[in-house]
Amino acid sequence: MIKNKLADNNSDYSLVILTTSASKFDASVFSADEIKYVKDELKNKKSLVAVNQYNRMVYVCLLENKSKEQSLYMESCRKAGHQMTALLNKTNVKSVLIEARGLRQEALCFTEGLALANYQFRKYKTSGNNNSLEVIALHSNKLTDKDLLWLNTMVDATCKARDLVNEPVNYLTATQLSNEMVKLGKQAGIKVTVLNKKEIEKTGMGGLLAVNKGSQDPPTFTIMEYKPAGHKNKKPFVLVGKGVVYDTGGLSLKPTANSMDYMKCDMGGAAAVGCAIYALAKAKIPLHIVALIPATDNRPGENAYVPGDVIKMYSGKTVEVLNTDAEGRMILADALHHAKKYDPALVMEFSTLTGSASSALSKYACAFLTTADQNQNTALKKSAANVYERVVEFPMWDEYGELIKSDVADIKNVGGPAAGMITAAKFLEHFIDYPYMHFDIAGTAFVHAEDSYRGKGGTGFGVRLISEFLKNKI
After folding, report:
1. Alpha-carbon distance 167 to 158, whole Å?
2. Residue 179 DSSP one-character state
3. pLDDT score, position 207
4. Crossing angle of helices 463-471/374-387, nearest 10°?
5. Which of 22, 189, 249, 441 is least enclosed, having the fewest CB within 10 Å?
């Protein structure tokens, strides 16, 4: 937890002073000689200066706005926090006090980057060292208790999402994923209902059941509802997340070398929406929000569905399956149809859906396709920039729908080699009748090398974006 002060008896700490000025420093912290040293170092284009005061280390971090875009400046603050985390852990610091007098947004972003960079997934490690940093305190006369609550909540929820994405399928089955969502619900005051396989069969979720046919483990369908007294919205916001806990591609087995190695991350959308609703509830945001998570693994065993099968979906539409590796859209289609029951103001769906999204945008942004109005889309893009979980909009033109027409069913589940991320969205469009935003996070949910404060492995992408966007609705 990020605190606003350190315990009075805590003498084992380092001090980080954030500043946007290279000329003004507190004489109560530094001697005259130290001030001269710091100023000289900053004049030599150093942005981080260390002062050894023997009983503690003091670091001066100069934050300079070198861009006309505020979002780029705030991201540079987060990255500066990441650099500080590496230094503190390298020197075995246990506690740090960040002094950011006169600064608000810079202080929040720097501390967010520092805290997120300190994340580790060491559940299965039997050797090696944990990061030394245990306590982070942030002080600024510009910050409120609400600021600190929001900052703590974002870090907590993002790290929980990372944990879920990093878990292997021999622990995180569909059943266990639903159990984890129940735990989050209990912690945050969210009503959680989990449909088991018999209930899913009774409901008629044909897409989810078809994908699950190749598995020995049953599917689940998790419904999370946060409806606080006095909520501001008449119609709920609904979040939908793809929960494929492992994806072999099914009988259309993934052909690319190493392409299956990280497929435990194929439930990154489920982690994003489950942890986002958790965050918004913990922060007591007065909105009615629902999260829907269809979950299964996709394997080629048992009585697995095959290319050529025709599946009757929950909505009643029929789908010709031409590739069993296009499974995410099959389970999401049932969840999107279920969302109609809520008469939602907006549905936001997150999924690690297509390789084409990852190929087009890599780890730097997710594909964004939308039927929502321009005001909603503009607000979404602003929120994406604010938290630097960027989106790139692709078109939903009618012509792309021609590519998924089937000769034997209403639609087919793939549209060919071209425009894969768009035809996937056009497939899902068949199951909605409300304003809809689709986020293909295939390239951003999991990274294979350290990416600043996002770390390595599960990134928790989407938690901060959803939370920022919906918080601004009040």
Report:
1. 14
2. H
3. 98
4. 130
5. 189
Full set of structural domains in the chain with CATH: 2-140 (3.40.220.10), 158-471 (3.40.630.10)
Position 256 pLDDT exceeds 80: no
Average pLDDT, integer, range 5-13: 74
Query: How far, in Å, CA of 381 to CA of 368, rounded?
Result: 10
What does the pLDDT look like over 180-231, one tens digit per residue? 999 999 999 999 999 999 999 999 999 999 999 999 999 999 999 999 999 9
Long-range pairs of 163-166 with CB within 8 A, sequence gap ≥ 24: 163/121, 163/123, 163/458, 164/267, 164/270, 164/271, 164/274, 164/275, 164/458, 165/264, 165/265, 165/267, 165/268, 165/271, 165/445, 165/446, 165/457, 165/458, 165/459, 165/460, 166/121, 166/264, 166/457, 166/458
Give which of 215, 217, 214, 274 is closest to 243, Cα–Cα: 274
Q: What is the pLDDT of residues 50-67, one digit of tens each?
A: 999 988 999 999 999 988
Residue 257's pLDDT band, with cuts at 50, 70 and 90, is confident
Q: In 355-423, which ranges are E strands?
A: 366-370, 391-393, 411-412
Q: How confident is the model at residue 11 (pLDDT cuts 50, 70, 90)?
A: low
**Which residues, 6+ apart, have CB-to-CB distance to 89 below 8 Å?**
118, 131, 132, 133
Strands laid side by side in the 135-139 sheet: 2-3, 135-139, 95-99, 13-19, 57-62, 48-52
Q: What are phi and psi of 361, to 5 degrees?
A: -120, -10
**Contact indicator for 440, 354 with CB cutoff of 8 Å:** yes
The C-alpha atoms of residue 224 and residue 358 are separated, in whole angstroms, by 29
SS3 at position 175: helix
9 has pLDDT over 70:
no
Both tokens assigned to 67: 């861009």
Three-state secondary structure of 79-143: HHHHHHHHHHHHCCCCEEEEECCCCCHHHHHHHHHHHHHCCCCCCCCCCCCCCCCCEEEEECCCC
List the catalytic residues: 254, 329
Return the H-helix or E-strand segment holding 269: helix 268-282
Q: How many CA atoms lie within 13 A of 435 on its CB side?
A: 12
In whole angstroms, what is the distance from residue 126 CA to residue 123 CA? 8
